[in-house]
Amino acid sequence: MTKPVSYKRHRFPPQIIAHAVWLYFRFPLSLRLVEEMLLERGIVVSYETIRRWGKKFGPEYARRLRRKPPRPTDIWHLDEVVVSIAGRKHWLWRAVDQDGYVLDEIVQGRRDTKAAKRLLTRLMKKQGLVPKRIITDKLSSYGAARRQVMPGVEHRSHKGLNNRAENSHLPLRKRESIMQGFRSAGGLQQFTSVLSAVRNLFVPPHSYRSALATHLHRLQAVGRTEKLTP
Known about the structure:
By secondary structure, the protein is α/β, with parallel strands linked by helices. It contains 9 helices and 5 strands. It folds into 2 domains: 14-64; 75-185, 2-Layer Sandwich (Nucleotidyltransferase, domain 5).
């Protein structure tokens, strides 16, 4: 049985805390905007308190949301994006499936074969399968890592084929601008992990082709987030 989230020594009800964290990670809002939105409802809480709530409860909410991920597909789209932290370059390596669902992501200080190999190894371990095909951009490190880790897997390397992975970085880029950057690699890893867990809830499968099916999927996603609190 899942152990309930502990809200001991917090004077605000769990529903308010969860709603504030939900607003912050679901929408491209600054902490001060979340503070104002709560104030409109008569809830007086500082943006710094909301930041602490996100840091404390966000990872736990993300773990609970990941407990029932969709069935993984056998085609993976891989990409990496540079993020500058305190004047130093870091790379966020990410893998998504055909629907744009984030399968895994990891912040690394390198953009080479070793980093690509680490991503592929983590992916196979977490997904419990070897893909039929991986799709990447022209970075040669992917091909070298694939030959070492999964030599029998088809590899398509073309920038135009990898839009799903590249588009998956857009929400993070928006938040990076709003937050005026990240302070540490660990902070980036934690933030993007929660951000992707929340975002994944709202990624409809390709089989949901109608607007009604997509709306129903989003309503179900909202319902799942409401169950995070007792």
